Amino acid sequence: MLTDDFVLALNPDPTKRAVCIERRKYDLIRAVILGNLQEYGPMTFTELGGLMEDQLREDFDGSVMWYYTMVKLDLEARGELRRVPKSILQLMELSRQERDFPCIL
After folding, report:
1. Fold for domain 6-100?
2. Which residue did the predictor score with more confidence, 103 or 17?
3. In the chain, where are the structural domains located?
4. Cα separation values, 65 from 2, 72, 79, 96, Å
5. Are the beta carbons of 71 and 7 closer than 8 angstroms?
6. What is the pLDDT of residue 104?
7. What is the pLDDT of residues 30-63, one digit of tens each?
8. Closest CA to 98 of 48, 39, 18, 17
9. Which pTM does this prediction carry?
10. Which helix H or strand E contains 6, and what residues bound it?
11. Are 94 and 38 in contact (CB under 8 A)?
12. One-letter-per-residue 3-state SS of 57-98
């Protein structure tokens, strides 16, 4: 049973399963993803992941890259961020909705 302490992270691919993530970890990773994209603009999956590793390495309990990947997929599924169409690398950007309403960290 899902409680308020967990978030069901969706996947934009309907054939893939959703995963349960601790809410405090989900909220932190989400805030860092959205904050970095607001501050620096579109970034590749690898660039954003590397930046997050640098920012969270010391204080995060768990694999930053695993949580980053799961939360990023959830944000895509919920329409908060998107892959830039026709980009050679997986370029991520905030959806129009997120650009219009700044994220408060």
Report:
1. Arc Repressor Mutant, subunit A (1.10.10)
2. 17
3. 6-100
4. 24, 10, 21, 25
5. no
6. 42
7. 999 999 999 999 999 999 999 999 999 999 999 9
8. 39
9. 0.85
10. strand 6-9
11. yes
12. CCCCCCCHHHHHHHHHHHHHHCCCEEECCCCCCCEEEECHHH
